[in-house]
Amino acid sequence: MNPESAENTESPESTRGTGSTGSTGSTGKTESNAEYGKKPFRRSRSHFTDRITADGRDGRPVEAGRYRLVVSRACPWAGRALISRRLLGLEDAISLAVTDPIQDDRSWRFTLDPDGRDPVLGIRFLGEAYDARETDYPGGVSVPAIVDVPSGKLVTNDFQRITLDLATEWTALHRPGAPDLYPEPLRDEIDEVMAGIYRDINNGVYRAGFADGQSAYEDAYRALFRRLDQVSRRLADRRYLVGDTLTEADIRLFTTLVRFDAVYHGHFKCNRSKLTEDPVLWAYVRDLYQTPGFGDTVDFDHIKRHYYQVHTGINPTGIVPLGPDLSGWLTAHHREELGGRPFGDGTPPGPVPRSEEVPPAGRP
């Protein structure tokens, strides 16, 4: 049982307001973007939680080519699915759609594709797949999302469950040598570690960044850095969070840490210290970044433009900072001296498909 199911929630990287459609303002952004930091931050639950399973018990069987994964490279929750898909070698089994990092009031848009339309789904906005599933759906249009290609309908936006199912239900389509990212003997420990990381780190940076008052901000800030210090101590003498191989827990921590100095430290006021100032966490996240399947999914350009240009409530000028310097991501980390086997008895994933490579602007 995933301990996060009680907080099984929608990504904050979503279009909110009256729904997935609406009038376009002069800025081309959602009106709710200006509301960040002006009301209490609360993450809403995922509305569409159908599961894609090996036996199809929920009516959604695992099937190569049937589904399309829609992500934003800016979003840490979508980043989990990107990494899992790469590590497990599911590129040919479930196709990938990457949205523009800048949203407007009609939700995530496919303006990076020719004619602004997803070439497989034939839609301009992810919200169209939500509407195909449920007319006048009133909630946020979030990523990651999995869409059924034949019908064009959204299947799930349950970001907490998507990666666990990729690891455990899609095994028949995993590449030879794929790692076991959620090994059954370690699941209780993985779940416990992930629960604290989710509450205080993954979600904690948002609670700090979108706090509507000093007290709420300070509570989130203190919980965040208490947990980061705890994780740093845990990783001081072990290469990975649980066991001696990569697991789901490392994926979930990585997607927040890789964004920390670029956006959370300044934009979200999580500024007690930078990640680069913690020798353990900085070495750990560089180790992961340099591991095939992790850093090759990260687009720092998308990350910075999304946070600084979309969250107008806390950055009304929309100015995107030029820093930080990214060259350090490729420097030696020496974490291999702690031992560990990144892929267990398996092997690294192959090269990134050419069509999925991160553009040079997003890489160190």
Strands, helices and their partners?
Layout: E1 14-15, E2 67-71, H1 76-88, E3 95-98, H2 127-133, E4 141-142, E5 145-148, E6 153-156, H3 159-168, H4 187-202, H5 204-209, H6 214-234, H7 248-264, H8 279-289, H9 300-310
Parallel strand pairs: 2-3
Antiparallel strand pairs: 1-4, 2-5, 5-6
Helix pairs in contact: 1-3, 1-7, 4-6, 4-7, 7-8
Describe the structure.
The protein has 364 residues and is mostly helical. It has 9 helices and 6 strands. It has a 4-stranded mixed sheet, with helices on both faces. Strands 1-4 form a two-stranded antiparallel sheet. Strand 5 and strand 6 (153-156) form a beta hairpin. The chain starts with 13 loop residues before the first strand and ends in a 54-residue tail after the last helix. Mean pLDDT is 90; it is low at 1-12 and 16-31.
Strand content: 5-15%
The major β-sheet equals: 4 strands, mixed
| Count of helix runs | 9
Order of helices and strands: EEHEHEEEHHHHHHH
* Main β-sheet, spatial strand arrangement: 3-2-5-6
Whole-number radius of gyration?
19 Å
Total count of strands:
6
How far apart are the termini? Answer: 38 Å
Unreliable stretches covering 5 or more consecutive residues: 1-12, 16-31
Instruction: Note the overall shape.
Output: globular
User: What's the helical proportion of residues?
Assistant: 25-40%
Descriptive tags:
mainly alpha, 364 residues, two-stranded antiparallel sheet, globular, disordered N terminus, four-stranded mixed β-sheet
